[in-house]
Sequence to fold (339 residues):
Amino acid sequence: MKKISVLLSAVIALFMGATSAHADLRDVYTISNIPVDHTANTTREAEAQAVAEAKIIGLNRLIERLTLEEDRALLGEDFYSYSNANELAAAVDVDNERRSTTVYRAELSVVYNPIRLRAQLSQRGVPFIDQQASRVLLVPVSASAAPVADWAAVWPRSDEGALSPYTTSQRPRSSVADWSAVAPEVRSVGATGAIFAGLVGTEGDYAVNLTRMTAAGQTVIGRTRSVETLEEAVAAASAYMDAAWKSQSIVRSDEARTDSTAVARFSDQRSWNAMRSAMSNSPLISGFRVDAIARDGALVSFTYAGSEERLRTEFSQRGINLLSSPDGWVIEYGGSRQF
Fold:
């Protein structure tokens, strides 16, 4: 397999400068595995046409990744033009390249400029999110729809570029397990929770039930549309997880912002680190500040967008409970709250 990289060091610097808290931004802005096949008078012309096509295809896929369907109508056809796609593209990777005197075939990956794309989406009033959710352990589950080993085999080992990144469990199951059964593997892959991908239906008519499990409890994410193959079921589940994250996390300009304080209670440094990370990295929270800290607790303040229930859901996805008390909000890692 021949692989030619045309990425420049400036591209790396671009992504380092574009983000400090989210080291995987480059993965989000990279669209991979774009097949191209062009014929022209010369191989050079065919290659130029192929690269131009890949930049447009990649931009379409990237916008699908970052935005919700109902918001994409705000983008006109000019946004997807070659001139704009070329301006937004930062670099191209080439894989599986084949050439002849008139033909160019390859699989291309296009890396886009986050600063320029963010500016354009903001100027056009298109809500988006390019921040990834916390990594989860993806657990394939199948009782009777298909052999669990077959269902597990079609999942990739991981998905780094998705808005909902995951690492696939090495222990597929026939049913949804409890938190204590999956917590060791969750921690071993650096995840904050697990998502059980439960395959249902019959051959040619599959769907996937998605259930999240964290230290804070269990929540139902939803059920995908019906598809024909196991490979399509994986794609549908990944797309559903991304869409759920976008719906939960995109903050619109007209949403209310609320200033708040809370007491964070913890029993050890790991619990405090988890809570602090959940608050400082949440797309719903701005201005997070630790006002005071002691051995087993801290007083924190922040501003959140949207409703209290939305914030509660955001915390629960990270294994954190947001509780009400006579003295105000209390934040705890895990706990007995039921969902």
